[in-house]
Each structure stands twice: as structure tokens, then as C-alpha cells.
Amino acid sequence: MNDPYVKVDIENGVGTIEFFHPAHNSLPGNLLAELTQTITAAGNNKEIKVIVLKSGGDRTFCAGASFEELITINDAETGREFFMGFANVINALRKCPKFVVGRVQGKTVGGGVGLASATDYCMASKFAAIKLSELNVGIGPFVVGPAVERKIGLSGMSQIAIDANSFYPAEWAKQKGLFAQVYESTEELDEAVKAFAENLCKYNPVAMKEMKEMFWNGTEDWDQFLAERAEISGRLVLSEFTKETLKRFK
Fold first, then answer.
1. What's the pTM value of the predicted model, to 2 decimals?
2. What is the DSSP secondary structure assignment for residue 121, as one 8-state letter?
């Protein structure tokens, strides 16, 4: 399993969207665009009643932004466009008319924490430690911050954003409200996700749509808001500090 992909599998009304990248499920721009399109299409697919968002592989849910791509950014507009990739995925999850269940099997960093936070109900294994590492490279979690803050509060978000070197355990994320449940193994997690998603399919889809709109009330300005945040990140990625830091990852 070496080629990046985004794929959808539909079974018993559950549409499972899976993404993969060999570099710890990091997300370059083309994969972010494909993920956005796939989420939007699944939201409009009448065969799908509930969506599960997961990644391939066993160890890492998502390593966040692709450092290989970050290194190549040489102007503010290209930087803005790259970070808009994460903004677009978050907004696609936000506007999707169906519940999205997150399945987080392992560590998740930066933008990956944003994706998990933008799901409507997130389930994880005990290996799913989280970290907002952006400050380490001179940027900051500007685009994903609103989604993370919405789930774990300003205090929790600021704690992990400032302490950018530390992984916080899955139980901490559960206590803060990011994860609804934490399981001892990936196998237990998968069984629970399957049962939970299939049970949701029995509910009235109109009621679930109305509930989702209620849950996301107050985020109607996020198309513009996250675009403004992407512009900040796109500018900061050009700083001398960030350029020097990214050189270590070449």
C-alpha cells in the first residue's frame, strides 16, 4: 500500500470514506481536494445515510499537512491555496447533510486533529494521541483551530497549541470532548464504529439533518472565516523561521 488514495465503500447505508498517504497519512493539496469532493458527493448520495471518515494503515490517523509540499511554497497565494485545502475539507464536513462519524485508530497531528474535530461524533483507539505541532514550524493552527476549539473549548485548544511538542493521550481528548469513546484496540474500535453507524442508519434522515444544522449553528461564516485564517498561514509559511525549520525535513 504505497499509492495515495481516497476511496468510498457503501454497505448497509454506511458510506465509509478512507484516505491514505504513505507518509503517515499526511495530506498534500491534491489529496485534500479529492477528500473535499468525496465528502460532498457522499453527502448528496441517496444510498448513503451515515458517513464514516477513516484513514488507511494501522499506526497514524493523519500527520497533517504535507511537509514536502510546504517546503515548495514560495509565495503567499500558493500558501493560502494550500491551507485552503484544510479549510475546504472542514467546511465540507460542516455542510454535509449527514452525520459524519470519525474513526481515529492512531496518532493524529495538526490538520489531522482538525479533521477529527470536524466530524460529528468521533471514536478512537487508546493509541490515538493528538498534537497541534504547527507552532513548532513557525505557523500555528489557524485554519483548524476553530474546529478544535468548538470541540474541546478555548482552554483545551490553547493548551495543546502552545505546548506544540507534546502528544496528549486519547483519554485526555475524551475528557475534553473530542473523542466520544476510546477503545483498547483497533479491532474493538472497528466493531464499535460499524455497530454505531449502522444503528444511526435506522433513524429518520430528516431529523438527523436538522440536528446537524443545530449542532453547527453559529458557523455559517466559516467559508470566509477559514479563508482568512488560510491567508495568515500562507503568509507565515514564507517566514525565515519557517523556511529554516522546514529545511530539516528535506
1. 0.96
2. E
